[in-house]
Amino acid sequence: MLADYPLGKRHLRGVRCVHTHLKGEPLTQDDLTDLALLRLDIMSAIGALDSGLPGDIHTAHLLPYNPEGETYKVEDSVPFHRYDIEMDSFTASLEAEMGRAIMRDVSDTRERAILVSVSTRHRDEQLESLEELKELARTSNVLVLDSICQRPQTLNPKYLMGTGKIKELIVKALQKEATILIFDQELTPTQIRELGNITELKVIDRTQLILDIFARRAHSRDGKVQVELAQLKYLLPKLTGKGISLSRLMGGIGGRGPGETKLEVDRRRVGDRIAHLEKELRSLSKGRFERRRKRADSGVPIISIAGYTNAGKSTLLNALTKSGTLVEDKLFATLDTATRRLRFPRERDAVITDTVGFIKDLPEDLLKAFKATLEEMEDADILIHLVDASNPSFEKRMETVRKLLDEIGLADIPTLLVFNKADLMDPIEAGNLARRFDAILVSAFKPESLTPLLKELEMRLWPGEGAKV
Prior knowledge:
Rossmann fold; five-stranded mixed beta sheet
C-alpha cells in the first residue's frame, strides 16, 4: 500500500493512520515510531468505551525543523465527537511549513548527507573515524548536514543500528532535507537494501564513498582500470534481484523450465568485465615492469614517498623536484603515480615517485587493485615515510601505513621517517617529536627546511662518498 504513496520531493507521505485503542490508552511509543519512520500525515488512536461507542481521540504529527530539536507533537486528547479539524488544509500547511523551515541555496546541486557511525569501538576511535569520514565526504563534494553516532552493545544485523536511532535519523533527514546517508561502517547488501527501503534515501558506506573519490581522481589508464575493477568487485556481491520471477521460459524439448534470470545475466556481465579488466591490468603491469627494468639498468637510485593520505606527499615531490604535480588540501588529491628526477649536487641523480595515499580501513578490493601501482615501490632503494606530524592522530596513522606496507610486502625496504608540516606546530614540540621518533623534520612549503632531508638521502644512497647539499 505504501508503495503507492512514494515521498518524492514531499516531506509527508499523504497517508493518515487511524486506529483504535480498546482500553482508551494514549499513543504508544510504537505509534510515534511509525509516525516518524513512515512520515505519516498524522497518527490517530480512538479509544473505545464499554458501550462500544468512541471515546477520546489521541493524535500526533511531525514537526518542521525547530531549535529545540523536537521531532513530533502529541496533541491533548479530546472526546471524539468534539474533534474538529480540516485535515487537508492542516496537512498542506504543515507540508509548506516544513519546506520553509530550512533555508538553503536551491542552486547548490551537491548531495546533502547525514553521516552515521554505529560501532562498538571506543568512543574516541569512533569520533576520530567520523571526522575522517567528514573529510572524505568533503573530498567527494558532498555537503555534510549533520552526523549521528550510536554505540550499541550488539549490532543490529538488519539495520546495523537500533530502531529508535533509525527514527531519529529519518526525522533528522526529513527536517534537514538530506538526500543521502553515508555510514562509516561497511554495510552488507541486506543492510543497504533494508536501510534504503525504510528511509527512502540513497544509502552508501565508507567503502563506496572512497571508491567514488577514486573514480573522480583517477586520470591515467592504469588508475581508471584499477578503480573500475575495485568498483565491480565491490558491486558483484551486492547485485540483488527477484530471482526466478525475472526468468524467461525457453521453448522446445529439453528446454522447458526457467531460463537465465536477469540477475544472473547482470552477474555474468560483471564477471566478464572483471576478467577483461584483470587481463588489461596484467598487460599494463608488464609495461610498468619494462619501464622499471630500464630505470634499474640505468643504475639511477629510486626513492618512493609513502604515507597517509593528505600528509603532503605531492607537495614534497614538487618542492624537491620543482615540478607541478596537483596539490590540494583534500584526501586522495592525487591517485596516479607521479615519477620525477631529483637532482643532487656533484651531478648525482635519483628517481623519486609519489604513490597513492593510504587510509585506515582501506577497502580490500581497492588495495588488491592498487597493488599493481604500488609495485612501483618494490624497486625503491629508499622509502620516505611521510607523516603529517601536526595531526593529533599522527601515531595511529603511522601505524596504519606500517601495517599496509607490511601487508603488500614492502616492510624490508630501508625507510626514512620524515615529519612534515612543521610550520603548523610549535617549534620546540616539533623538535622534541622528531628526536623521539628519530625523524627528519621538514615543511614542504619551505624549501630551506629540506636541506637535512637531502643530506640524509644523499648519504644513504651513496654511503662513504660524503654528501654536499
